[in-house]
Design brief:
This protein is α+β, with helices and mostly antiparallel strands and about 160 residues long. About 35% of the residues lie in helices and about 25% in strands.
Length: about 160
């Protein structure tokens, strides 16, 4: 184990966290290194954070479940409608026709989150200001470039569409 440079207790804890898939067999050194390697390939780095690849894969699948057209766009604030009584917000501007109950707030919707990694998108000159959208949801540039273009993420989508 020491040759592998790993702290046994730390590694064991890591494996316990992933125990759903783990084999009950006793881990020898080579098992351990193999499993350690495989656990590394099952993570994806997005904005400097390591994510469980299954979780991210599910997010990509969710975004691709319907045959949306995604296009690159700058994030812009949107008008929102507020219920005068409850203060609750809707993006359905047609509610404003009922002006006794609803009020339009110009640029009231200030941010969205990446549908995959929850990265914040808002009006900005930097990476937060641009993403891909289907008009309803947003995906950050990093998720789009890293995940959309990976064959394993794309292949699962086609089977959802056809
Ligand atoms: Zn993202």
């Amino acid at each position: 184990m020491r040759e592998l440079g790993g702290d046994v207790r730390r590694l064991r804890k890591q494996f316990e966290r992933e125990a759903e898939r783990a084999q009950p067999a006793v881990a020898t050194g080579s098992d351990l290194s193999r499993r350690l390697r495989s656990s590394i390939t099952e993570t994806v780095q997005i904005h400097g954070l390591w994510w469980n690849a299954d979780y991210i894969h599910d997010g990509v699948k969710r975004c691709r479940r319907h045959n949306w057209h995604w296009h690159k766009a700058s994030w812009k604030s949107r008008d929102a409608v507020v219920n005068r009584r409850t203060g609750r917000i809707s993006l359905d501007l047609s509610l404003a026709e009922d002006s006794a109950n609803f009020e339009v707030v110009k640029d009231g919707w200030k941010k969205d989150r990446c549908a995959i990694c929850s990265w914040e998108l808002f009006e900005s000159e930097d990476l937060h200001g641009t993403g891909h959208t289907n008009g309803r949801e947003w995906v950050c540039m990093e998720c789009y470039e890293k995940l959309w273009q990976r064959p394993d993420f794309i292949s699962s989508s086609y089977s959802d569409i056809t």
